[in-house]
Amino acid sequence: ATVSKLSKTHFSPVDITNKINRFYSYASQSLFFTKSLTEITAVRRTADLRIIPIWLARSTREAISQSVPSDIDAANVLLTMKPPQSPDEIAEHWVVTRNEIAQEELPSRLQALFPLHRLPTPTFALAAHVSAKNSLCNSRLFSTLPLPVSISLPVHIHATWILAQDRRSIRYDAPDAANRRPDDTLYNVHLLEKGIAPLYVKTLALLLRHHPKQVRRFWPGKVKDDPSQTVTAELYNQIISTSEPVLLSAQGQPIAPVNSIIHLSAKAPTAVRKILSGLKVHNYVPTPYMPTSSREDWGSLRFDRGEEVSKILRENAIAIQALWQATAFTPQDIISVWRYLLEEEESLNGIPLLPRGDGQLVEFQNSGNGRIFASHRTELTRLFGPSTVVSPGISDLTAQSLAKIGLNVESLDPRGMRDLLQLHSQALIPADSKIASGAQLDWHKDLLKFLASPGCPVKVQDLPDLPLLPAVGRELVVSLNLARGGKIWWRCSYEDPALTAVLLQLGVITVDELPGEVQRSDSNELTRILQLFGRLNFSSQEVLRRVTPGDWEAFVQYLNPWLRDFYLSRLSNADHQTLNTLPFFKGRQGTNPLSYVPASQVMMLPDAVPFDAVAQYLPSETTFAASSQELSAVLRTGRNTQNTLSFPSLLKKLRIPRQLSQNDDASFSSLLPLVAAHDTDQDARQGREVLRRASWLWDYVNTAPQQLRAISFDSIRGLRFVPRHSQRHPSDSDFDLHARDLPSVVSLDELSAPNREAVVWTQRARFAAYPTAHLTAVYPAIGEPTAADVVRHLICVVNNVAPNHREPSILLSNIRSVYSWLKSNQANVKGLLKPLAKKPLWLNIADLNDWTWRAADELVFDLTYDVGGRFVVQKFLLPYRSLLVDAGAHEYRVANLSPPATSETQTPHSEVMRSGWNKLRKAGQLLDMCFKVEGQEIPAHRGMLAAMVPHFATAFSGPFRESIISADQSELPVYQIPQDETASAFAVRSLVDYVYTGAFSHPKFSNLDEASGALDDLLDLMELSHLWDVPNLSNQAVKAIVELRLIRFDNCEDVLGRAQDCQMQILVDVCQRTLEQN
């Protein structure tokens, strides 16, 4: 229809449809609290008179009769809806509860309102959406039909309200200043508190019974509007005393709050809820639906506070153990419960929540009963088993805190350790010693290691009467009391295994020294050992019989560092006597070697006398020992110096043949090292006897006997047995005072071959009797100096000899010999000379009249002049160029010109023309202009200049005022060079010469200043030819600069700059390469 007779407002079909569709949301909520109205449907009629539904809202009710409180009505309401423009129907499941209150039950003041407002018997109801997944977020107040009043409760509320004047809300005025409210408002408040709140409690019980999984959503939480706050406050007031089963116990059964122990989430940890839930305590409510933290006063309700929890735990010890074995809770849960109970000031005594290391859960008990240790759990578990410690799942800090509460959890102490040792399978009780083998001995070692660890609170010293110390190498443990009695040997940590092995074979009980406690009476190990051997009182033969040779050998080597004057001087007489009787030194009777013998039974050879060299010459009835620092100290401090042989006394005892036979290899091979080794520096200055013996030995060696070939040169080259010449310098004894001091008897390494004396006389002596050709054939290296000797000789000559002997020919000859030898051995001396590059070791002279010493680093080969601290290498050093370069001298290199890219071909005809014009210029014919530069007049032909120089071709083509011929016809016109083209006379003349001849005359110079001037002239010419566009002349100027070697250290960068200004790349390249190469 286009025209409505019901309203003056015009409505289109679309408007009507929208109006009807908007009414759907209101209609879908209008069927909760109506009994007669069960369906609201919107339809439209089509043109063919068919009825088509637009939307639908329909309800069906089913009463809930079982287990429902008798004083309320409850029904399941199935709400079926078909929204507009939707083909599908939607079904919602609601539970609706209803109750009423008699008028007489209201206060008399409120009863007067009934006739005034024509009120029926007050009824009230709740609607809960049980099929929704979430709590209701758009609940309303209803007065049978919905009011546009939203509330924050999770249910819809209906009641017989007194409505406001607009009939769209209920009367709910705020208190005035006197805290008074209208009676209409008080009526509505009374319905909320005395009608809705009790119904809400019963509804929660109903929902818990029939919909336990959804009931939590219908408990009110934080509400905002006043009606919701009134209902919520009164609801929780009634919860305190209600007998309705609105909570769910740990066994899954509904229970009334007054009969429950409720989990207090704000106080009790979740671990309490986990354990009590696991125990399925019949009256425990692990998940209370009410917000327990929303109010402080819950009246007589019981919560899982410390007292209740501890009581439950003590009554369920077996069940708790079963839960623990099933891993229903963790060590962290246990810790949380401990802390909670202690915070609640509850005792843990009797609480079965003490986890042991073996996985068992036991009760806390009073101190002294069933001790369990909280410290050093890893070590105690390894030694005494896991049942003795708190579970490793409990942190050290937490376990230590348990030890402070006075129960059976303790920290390890000496008393606790004694108890553990007595209860252990080893059953350690006080005793001096105990047999222990195999695993038992290993256990004792582990125990001692634990007691000796830095963090262990119990030490061996706390248990001195128990056999805890394992004996080294024995199946025995001893007590600390026995060990301190002086009957055993304390082994220190750094003690050599050889001592331990010897003591074990001698039957001495040894135990390791306790860490942190020094058991030794003296820090001197030698004193302890000697005192021990003194108590043993074994003979040397008995000692060697009991101890294996290898172990005794190692023991002697271990003891040798103690056999020094510093330690021996502190020994008592008794210790010295013991030392002299112990077999510490190897001896020999003639060629027959003996085992170890005491110091009191041997004669010690002189120092540096090899035993093998003299063995065959020693008397066989006496026991001799080689010289050693240890034996010498023992004999000296023991006042047995008569057993120490000097070299003269040894010679008296030796049975040496007076002469050596050519075939007596053994005699020669023995006596040569013997006599030579005895000739030390001190002995070589003692007189003629030493010199005579050395001359006798050298004369024999110089004959090159056959047996000498079996002796290597390296084995005798350092032995001093050769007499030297008294004069050091080969030709002038005045030089001798500068030579290195040497004794009269020297070694072969301190002598120079005759042909090498000039190059090493300051470092080596001359032979008194030169080596024979036969000896030189056997030892070709005899007298040959080393590179180091010659370099040291050169330094000595420069620093000591040359300043005191100026310019003699002998010294010059010596220096030349040294330089020649160094060059011949260049590969060997390079590494020695390079570090001396800054030392003035090189005589840089051109003649004998001017001696100058220079460092290699200052010398430059191929340099023209001395410049910038660099010096030209003079004639004397030129033969040693490669040697000097290795020593640090420099080679000056100037880069060559790059070959031209193209070469110009000049025809003979042009040469004829150029030559003809030049002849006219020289004859002064047909000249028509000139240049005046620096006072010089340079004539030329304008035509020739214009033909050869583009600059003049341009200049002469315009007005040329200077070309006007003067009146007397005697002067040539002058070309005035502009100020910005200023040039030198040399540059202009060279340019004019180039125009006529194709070349110019190079400047001449004979010293450094003239060379600098020549360089400036050539650079001026380069710049002028570049300015006037004559490139070939520029190239010639550059070539002259390079060929005349005018580029030096001090001017190379200036030349580079001027070349770059003229863009003369060829000269730029030369300068850059010169800088790189130098």
Briefly summarize what is shown.
The chain is 38% helix and 13% strand. It is an alpha/beta fold. The model is unreliable at 656-665, 677-686 and 960-968 (pLDDT under 50).
Question: Which helices and strands, and how do they pair?
Answer:
Elements: H1 13-27, E1 39-45, E2 51-63, E3 73-82, E4 90-100, H2 108-111, H3 113-117, E5 123-129, E6 140-143, E7 145-150, E8 156-159, H4 183-210, H5 226-239, E9 247-248, E10 254-255, E11 261-262, H6 270-279, E12 284-285, E13 302-303, H7 306-315, H8 317-325, H9 331-343, E14 354-355, E15 361-362, E16 372-373, H10 377-384, H11 396-402, E17 409-410, H12 414-423, E18 433-435, H13 439-452, E19 467-470, E20 476-479, H14 480-483, E21 489-491, H15 497-505, E22 510-512, H16 525-536, H17 540-546, H18 549-559, H19 565-568, H20 573-581, E23 585-589, E24 592-597, E25 603-604, H21 611-614, E26 624-625, H22 629-637, H23 647-653, H24 665-678, H25 688-702, H26 713-716, E27 722-723, E28 745-746, E29 751-752, H27 757-760, E30 765-766, H28 773-778, H29 787-801, H30 809-824, H31 826-833, E31 840-843, E32 853-855, E33 859-861, E34 871-872, H32 881-887, E35 890-891, H33 908-923, E36 929-933, E37 936-940, H34 942-948, H35 950-955, H36 985-997, H37 1008-1027, H38 1031-1043, H39 1052-1061, H40 1065-1077
Parallel strand pairs: 6-8, 11-12, 11-13, 16-17, 21-22, 25-26, 29-30, 33-34, 33-35
Antiparallel strand pairs: 1-2, 2-3, 3-4, 4-5, 5-8, 6-7, 9-10, 14-15, 18-20, 19-20, 23-24, 27-28, 31-32, 36-37
Helix pairs in contact: 4-5, 6-9, 7-9, 15-18, 16-20, 29-30, 31-32, 33-36, 36-37, 37-38, 39-40
